[in-house]
Fold:
Amino acid sequence: MKLKQTLLFTASSLLILASASSQAGRQGIDFYYGLGLGAAQPADVDASATGEIILGIEEDGWAIEGIAYNGLEAGTDDPDADYSLSGTEIGLAYRTIEKNDRYYKIKYSRADMDFETIDTANNTSSTTESSGNSYTVGIGFRMDRDARLELDYSYHNIDALSDPVHFISLRYLWGGSPYQGRNF
Structure:
């Protein structure tokens, strides 16, 4: 086999193996939605609080998840300049098998981010629109039969910014795969 064929075979085998042992092997396709609060930390500026809206579709532990977020205005090292950020991302997430009302999550996303710089001295602003990749790891907790709470860390590698943007988010999700274990 050629190298490309070997890599394709290996990747396909790993995906099939992960799906076979996923937390949702007993379910069909389900939709979920949620709200989140978080903090974003671009390099050399203050952290900004963010609000998020989440929509997703999942099956067998795999999910396609879309997120829209908006951050509050925050300060920079320059007393005459502030910033705010907003954006969207769509990605592929994988949640592990639930054990003791807990599971783990990894996600790869394509992110579009608007980074607005505000000159408070002159009342002007400029927006830098860019895109990049986002990598997420998280832990989730079962809150109710159809509700989950997730704590995620995301690393955004955005093209227009020289340094990455770090996010920590707390998300509450409704819908999705109902827990088939203990009764609530």
Strands lie at 30-41, 48-59, 62-71, 74-75, 81-95, 102-119, 124-144, 147-158, 165-175.
